[in-house]
Amino acid sequence: MTWLLDGPWLSVLMLTLLLLALFHRPLAWVGKVLARSLVGLGFLALWSHSGVLAGLQLGVNLFNALTLGLLGVPGFGLLMLLKWVGT
Known about the structure:
Elements: H1 2-5, H2 9-22, H3 24-54, H4 62-71, H5 73-86
Helix pairs in contact: 3-4, 4-5
């Protein structure tokens, strides 16, 4: 137990706890966006197979997944609008 009190370990532990306390909300927000983006990526993968039948295709990429993760259903409408305008 004395190894914990000797050296920089206590300072590193205190600094880590301080940083986690300061950045708790931003880290939670980033985790939420990443989780929603993974769900958006899964949706894009499913849409890429079923959208071909209707002629509505979207690429399965990081930009589209982040757009869906940040904006949700309106982001899907935005991506479809961008696809329609770009074609």
